[in-house]
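This follows on from our talk about sequence and fold. Go ahead and set the record down below:
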Amino acid sequence: MFDHVLKCTGCGAKYGFSLERKLCDKCGKGLSLEIEKLSLEETGEPGIWRYAGVLPNLESEFHISLGEGDTSLQLSGRIRRRIGVGELWIKDETVEPTGSYLDRSSALFVSTALSLGYGKILTYSTGNLGASLAAYSSKAGLKMHVKVKPTIDLGKLYQMIIYGAEVSVVESFREKRRVRDAAVAMEYDPLINEAKKTVMLEVFLQLNRSLPDYIILPMGEGGLVYATFKMLKELEKLRVVGKQVKIVGVQPDECKPIVKAFERGADTVEAEPESRSRIFDLNVASPRFGDAALKAIRETNGVAVSVSEKEIFEALSILAEEEGILAEPAGSLPLAGLMKLVRDGEIDRDSSVVCVVTGSGLKDPKVMKEIAYRKSSLGMLIEELSGGFRLSPTKTAILRLLSEKEMYGYQIWKWLREKYGIHVRIPTVYQHLDELVKKGYVRKRGSKTVMGRRREYYSLTERGEALV
């Protein structure tokens, strides 16, 4: 393991391998592992270790795997026709052991830490990396400590805890390279990034050793884009590819430092003063592999593009409804980017495209609930069942009365007493009605004047009917 060299993706400085070295001492950019002897011969081992010929040399006795990698590459028919491209493939990383493509990275990092005698792993994580490392540390028998921010997605937090990790909440990440008896893992760690290139390798192998016209990836640190580019260069070195694939990197509108650098024609990425994206895994204001990703996109004649939250959620829904793939928001960026680029004429309609869906939507229950709420009248039922809004017996009785016919306030008050034995004051009935209207269960149908008195009529909405 120690015969590998770390090379800076920025200034080119070289260092001997050390698990403690994360970034270049000279320029602060991300580091890349230099692997001299490459081979595509598969070993027959489980997980990413079947591709040991393109990974750091590590004794097989230390290989930890949960069966990561070898995920499906699905040929899409319905979405392809909807968007209007020649060929569309979906690389589905939602089926990884913990639901994220970072399981590939965890397999390599934990195995290396185990081989070097570490007894504990520490990471600072926005979600996916911490959950993944927790699972692989459990498999390896190592202790795990994850530091998270208060904005952590609950699904990922639950994973960490259930896998047995010690979790602490901090307001900001102040990374430490050295912690006694602990291997520190960061999103931009050279080993974490190295394993990501196996996604591109699998695409190449699954397409019968050929390449698409485009591969589209989400960008946060920029590591996946750089790792993809590195794998393509290694395939060229092995002389097994005859064409170039264009790399497309996609960021959310609210946090897009790499896209901004691409658009202004700059060679370096400037840090953003504030990152506001709700997609926390991509909320990286100062990406360590930003310059390397920018170079990768330009050298392959690709493009960097940003998409709105609305476009991301639309892509997420399309993946679920038309391909049966439930992606988290970050994993939906590639499809959102493709739709935008085709619409704007940036990608030809006869192109072959691979979109990499990096993580499962099951890891982000808050966003899944929000989208379900928007899509269906059952949204209110979901809110009720999840404790977001409690229906009292009186409110429930009011909904049942209105399911029979529309009524006015005094009429509802009267029937509550006669049919359900509920004795409340008339102002209380109107208070309940106002709350039900605000929640979308009940609507005002209009007023009528009867014998000089104005009556406001109420009826159920579709959401109210779904509850009843």
